[in-house]
């Protein structure tokens, strides 16, 4: 069972890029399932190690942050969902929702 969240996540699909450090480079472009000011759930095609530090950046956008892999859940044989906890947000993450007014998520 996953721990409860401090903030409610907003269901939203955004294109994102996740990359690891420069010593062992790995880059994956994928999509979020939901987001908040403190983190995101991202669909991925690979298993990510727990607590791995990554850089998370929506495409395109002026927001980027270092993040920690809080969990990696296997969904199907070759698909995973990772929970990312934002560690060092920089810039504003503006999220427009069709059903509600535009929101600015700040880290």
What does this structure look like?
The chain is mainly β. The protein has one domain (10-106): Thrombin, subunit H (Beta Barrel). It contains no helices and 9 strands. It has strands at 10-11, 15-19, 27-35, 39-44, 53-58, 65-76, 79-86, 92-95, 103-106. The strands form 2 sheets. Strands 2-3-4-7-6-5 form a 6-stranded antiparallel barrel. Strand 2 (15-19) and strand 3 (27-35) form a beta hairpin. The two termini are 26 Å apart.
Might you state the CATH topology name?
Thrombin, subunit H
Q: What distance separates the N and C termini? A: 26 Å
Q: How much helix is in the residues?
A: under 10%
Query: How is the largest sheet built, in terms of strand order?
Result: 2-3-4-7-6-5
Number of strands: 9
Please name the defining characteristics of this protein:
disordered C terminus; Thrombin, subunit H; two-stranded antiparallel sheet; single chain; 6-stranded antiparallel beta barrel; 107 residues; mainly beta
